[in-house]
Queue: 2 jobs
Job 1
Amino acid sequence: MAEKLIPLEDAQSIILSHVAPTDLVEIPVWQATGLPLAEDAVADIDISPFANSAMDGYAVRSADLAQASGEAPVTLDVIGHEAAGHVFEGTIGAGETVRIMTGAPVPEGADAVVKYEIVDVLDGDGNEGSHVRFSAPAKVGENVRSAAEEAHAGDVVMHAGEVVAPAGAGLLASAGYASVKVHAAPRVGIISLGTELVAPSKVPACGQIRDSNSSALMAEALDAGAEPVFYGIAPDDEQAIGELVHRATRECDFVITSGGASAGDYDYVTALVRREGEVLFDRISMRPGKAITFGLLGGKPYLGLSGNPAAAYVGFEMLARPAIRKMRGFAEGARPVQQAILTHCVKKRQDRRFFDRATVLRDPETGELLVTEAKTQNSALLGTMQRSNCLLRIDEGPCELKAGDVVDVVRVDLPEGTVL
Ligand SMILES: Nc1nc2c(c(=O)[nH]1)N[C@H]1C(S)=C(S)[C@@H](COP(=O)(O)OP(=O)(O)OC[C@H]3O[C@@H](n4cnc5c(N)ncnc54)[C@H](O)[C@@H]3O)O[C@H]1N2
Ligand code: MOO
């Protein structure tokens, strides 16, 4: 009997329709880097609040220097000085200037700043009481940064949903935000299933292997924007699995298990979800990662990934990552897909959609993008994934690809929304 495999896109939309953005938390602006803002950020004042000097020099009335030249320089009286943070209270009149530092407010009456380097101090130290000489005119507004250049009071400086860049944290600070609201990191519970599994710190006995999936999945969850919580390893025992899974669904926003998802004698977890909750799908047209269960348990989304490490990786990437991003408030968006030239032939006999581990590189001579698959696509191997930067996508149906064919690769090394 042919198995019922659902298309990846259907599986993705089922999962996305069962997760929602988490509650809001307030965090220091600098910690919001890389996260979407949950609310519009509005400037409470003009940024900058006053016109200020872009140079260390002399604040002048440009009209005074209109005729200034090397042959006919103009001399002005220095009537004061201004450092950043200091305000000169007076007004500059005809024939007068104020010595000014970068960032200081441009005094009343002045409309330009002339930098030190092209001003001659005729007497004194260049401060009050000195005379200074100008040999060229200054344009209105020269070296003056006007008030509200960045934003006016009441302007939205960053919209809800916009991802804060490091410079944006500075912009938010200048708009009056020491902290901002973002969607909390969803708590993602991770459980490894299998009697053969031992902790990475242990040396496996005969028939045992180290639990590598939980480390990879915790790392992937963290990278996707979640707060991963490890609940441990459950042996292939209904009661032990039930205990961990129940605790995780009570305490977390999303629960992920790996292993025990297939058709073996000890694959209990799908049966548990079917019995106590609802299974929404349990087979996907994808390789690796066919045997993946998604459902609701205790009202929480539950994703049961295949135990094979590469299958767990691809399953997380294609299904859990978009869900975590949605919970964190990111706009929907997929990893960038690129076209590249295949360097070898690939025969595909199965109907499922393939995501083969591969590396894409730019040929230094021709500038073309070339993609080469990892030597083995064995689902048990993670080293090939560690050294790959993309998944070569080969859509449903058997096919024979030749060297030189143009194929689609999913850049798993680049964030969603990257423009290539
Ligand atoms: N009769 C069938 N057998 C299998 C099918 C099938 O359709 N019919 N599908 C195969 C495919 S494809 C996959 S993928 C696996 C999925 O199996 P499970 O999800 O039930 O996973 P396990 O049997 O528990 O483990 C598979 C494999 O992965 C190792 N593993 C499990 N957990 C971990 C871990 N945390 N860290 C490292 N390695 C882990 C486990 O030892 C096994 O070698 O089923 C096929 N069989
Ligand atoms: O689909 Mo399995 O998940 O091929 O490795």
Note: The longest helix spans residues 309-327.
Job 2
Amino acid sequence: MLLTWKPPMEISVIWVVGFCVLMVAHGAQASSHESSRNLQETDQPYRTGYHFQPPKNWMNDPNGPMYYKGVYHLFYQYNPYGAVWGNIVWAHSVSYDLVNWVHIDHAIYPTQPSDINGCWSGSTTILPGEKPAILYTGIDTKNHQVQNLAVPKNLSDPLLREWIKSPYNPLMTPIDGIDPDLYRDPTTAWQGPDKIWRVIVGSQIDGHGRAILYRSKDFVNWTRIDSPLHSSGKTEMWECPDFFPVSTRSTNGVDTSSQDKYTKHVLKASFNHHDYYILGSYKPANDNFSVETNFMDSGMDLRYDYGKFYASKTFFDRAMNRRILWGWINESDSESDDIKKGWSGLQSIPRTILLSKTGKQLVQWPIKEIEKLRFKNLSFHDKKLKSGSVLEVPGITASQADVEVSFELPNLEDAEILDPSWTDPQLLCSQKKASVRGKLGPFGLLAFATKNLTEQTAIYFRIFRSNHNYIVLMCSDQSRSSVREELDKTTYGAFIDMDPRHENITLRSLIDHSIVESFGGEGRACITARVYPKLAIHEQAYLFAFNNGTSNVKISRLNAWSMKNAQIVSTKNRRKPQL
Ligand SMILES: OC[C@H]1O[C@@](CO)(OC[C@@]2(OC[C@@]3(O[C@H]4O[C@H](CO)[C@@H](O)[C@H](O)[C@H]4O)O[C@H](CO)[C@@H](O)[C@@H]3O)O[C@H](CO)[C@@H](O)[C@@H]2O)[C@@H](O)[C@@H]1O
């Protein structure tokens, strides 16, 4: 039973002792008193077990993730005083493995005229000689957005607990036509072969989303370049841009300053509540970014996630040669629900991100470290999922689970014809919800389901035929996720770039009390949903596979695991900045 389940003694002890040794060695004390898990009681059915959360209060964007001297760092936008947005500081947590975390003192909080009204999003850059530097947006005395620098006080502290702000702050200001309300979120900087640093800042100028480009020789004096790195007339304010290379020939990640004939560049911008990206080729000599497609310009609407996922940020993990993506997953309940819960906001499970084999899009997959939380496996293969059937996946904690399933389609010719007007996958999913019978599909998983299916969150596929091609639609239908009425239950959808004639259709779902992160087609389409079941909580939650199409499908294999709690603890007497 999940409520009483505790991780095996040896795992908690090894991890907490390991981290305490590190913390004590560096003059800090860990305490589980403030453990976020203490809140996971019957009145807190939506608190997660293995997603990153502070013990309480509001959290939004992930900031400045990095790896330094054997320790992963995550900073995040945080309100120390409540469960709604405001009083924003950079909270700071550290980890050995990106799964188990210790919350330590806030890294950056308002102290200077250049950030006295808030320390907003930004990024870290590792400067030569292993010296991390943070560029972040400060809200100054006039409530203008400006860009500031902070560096660690003590580089020999792997926890980097104290940060000193540059006396030269602000380093970049909203002049020459920049709107001081639309100028924020500096990226990780990158160095060209000429040793000059570049950074972009998100903005909107003349109604167009824009990445303002700056250059610097010393990371302190920054010059604005007349031409932006990129801008787009079909978008408005770009929040939290990210710009990084991906390899065209390897699954390894690439350092942000690297670039050669085997790399493409990704530009991500956050707008319209989603994280969109485009691919292109970047030449540092003239800072030219020539794009393959533009934002909102073609049928190719490339997004990191087609559900809830915003203000994301990547970093290059040198230790494991991979690029990792974090994203903020906000709530779908009301502000008054958040105040009652005492918290708001999750971070996604960190995902590795790389270019797909076709080179046309990115693919994402949960970091492999998360698999160490798996226990109690249920596995079967080659099971017919008859038309109209529902099959329980028994024996696991269905409210805190990791499921991988692969579907084989013996009767592809049964696929419905795709109407050419069906170009919007989200609209199509909301018209063809899980309860709407089709031919090949809907088939997939029912998460957070009550035994009688009154409550259910359906993650499923439908297959269509268009001329001689097959189209795979992936949906996440929250319309029956809770008998509570006052929730946002939007249905999400994405097309997956795959040919079901040549490969099975796979789905992996990470289920954690109020979140389902789903990866379709080996990570080619991701959909994250927040749900708040009233009945399907803790041991009353069940997991099913289902097929509501008229054609049979086969589960070629299914693997499901219960997931242990991650150890997420706080240091004793975490300092609360005086505002
Ligand atoms: O913390 C500041 C940093 O966060 C970013 C990106 O997330 O700016 C967020 C912003 O608004 C926060 C706010 O919500 C509004 O914006 C969200 C995301 O853009 C929307 O999803 C939401 O619907 C909007 O209401 O969050 C609170 C509750 O949702 C609400 O009170 C806030 O307005 O912060 C700015 C100040 O509010 C606003 O201009 C931004 O949109 C990043 O850009 C900042 O560095």
Note: The mean pLDDT is 93.
